[in-house]
Amino acid sequence: MVNQYSRTELLIGAEGMELLKGSSVMVFGVGGVGSHCIEALARSGIGKLILIDNDTVSLTNINRQSIAYHSTVGQFKTLVMKERIRDIDPSINVKTYETFVLPENLGRLLDQEEETGAGKIDYIVDAIDTVSAKLALAEEAQRRGIRLISSMGTGNKLHPELFEIDDLSKTSVCPLCRVMRRELKQRGIQHLKVLYSKEKPVDTGGRETGEEPGVRRSIPGSISFVPPTAGLLIAGEVIRELAGLDESSDRPGADKV
Fold first, then answer.
1. What is the CA radius of gyration of the chain?
2. Whole-angstrom Cα distance, residue 66 to residue 101?
3. DSSP state of 199
4. Distance separating alpha carbons of residues 76 and 94, to the nearest angstrom
5. What is the DSSP letter of 92?
6. Which residues share a beta bridge with 194?
7. Are strands 193-197 and 163-167 parallel, antiparallel or unpaired?
8. Res. 118 pLDDT band, cuts 50 70 90
């Protein structure tokens, strides 16, 4: 019978579709990377999506985030994303947390979801900016045995074709990867699957933008086609693994956190 997933089923088979339908994916960050990743997961038939982000849509998000329109400015990103998913497939179970992730509350958040949710989280996507939260996610995922993929820096870049997915230990050039390698080594974590780029960041001259009233800080530049590409690549990795189609299982760190 023809349905919205008929074309997907031609590629991954009925068994693959059932595996995706029975999977639960937790996504931290509903921004340029996260929003496009979430949408691809939803359009592929993931059965449950858990979205975590405390931010609201701002005017400057419109250039790259799938949930950002003039009509959604000021709304919680998680809730806009939830409505978008509902329009894609009303049967997808969507849970949202309008929460800022900190090392102090991450464990409680995961405990809460495992206790009140379906009892399992099959995959975690890290699409957040805070290094401390990224490190905490890596620690918690390893401790709980949950697969994790972490997005490294996508700001100040113009060449999405240079993105790669590999083990953190194999990365180079990316400044965030360098920090993560050092900090995770101190925590006894040797492996982490990441999306990163060897592109040297564009020098924006340290210009400051006052996005928030009374707050001026240096922020990275971004463009419409870079973070979304990163999000789609991450979604592809997650979908292939959950559907049992991952051809990179022998890649260093592919089955490790």
1. 18
2. 21
3. S
4. 15
5. S
6. 150, 166
7. antiparallel
8. low
Task: Give the tens place of pLDDT for each residue, 29-64.
Answer: 999 999 999 999 999 999 999 999 999 999 999 999
Cα(221)–Cα(202) distance, rounded to whole angstroms?
Answer: 8
Is 0.85 surpassed by the pTM of this model?
yes
Hey, what are 42's tokens? Answer: 């939803």
Q: Answer whether residue 164 shows pLDDT above 50.
A: yes
Q: Which amino acid is at 127?
A: A
Sign, Cα dihedral of 200, 30, 241, 138: positive
Q: Is 32 helix (H, G, I), strand (E, B) or coil?
A: helix
Amino acid at 180: M
Segment holding 229, helix H or strand E: helix 227-242
Alpha helices (runs of H) in 72-209, residue ranges in sequence order: 77-88, 103-116, 131-144, 175-186
- Measured in residues, the chain has a length of 257
* H-type alpha helices, 127-218: 131-144, 175-186
Q: What is the DSSP letter of 202?
A: P
Encoding tokens for residue 214? 């009374």
Task: Find where tokens 């973070």 sit.
Answer: 227
Closest CA to 136 of 220, 175, 192: 192
What Cα–Cα distance (Å) separates residue 107 from each residue in 63, 103, 143, 152? 33, 8, 10, 22
61 Cβ contact partners less than 8 Å away, ≥ 6 residues apart? 31, 32, 67, 68
Nearest to 238 by CA among 76, 36, 90, 95: 36
Specify the pLDDT at position 28: 98
Summarised one tens digit per residue, pLDDT across range 237-251 is: 999 999 999 765 444
Instruction: Give the bridge partners for 25, in sequence order.
Output: 49, 123
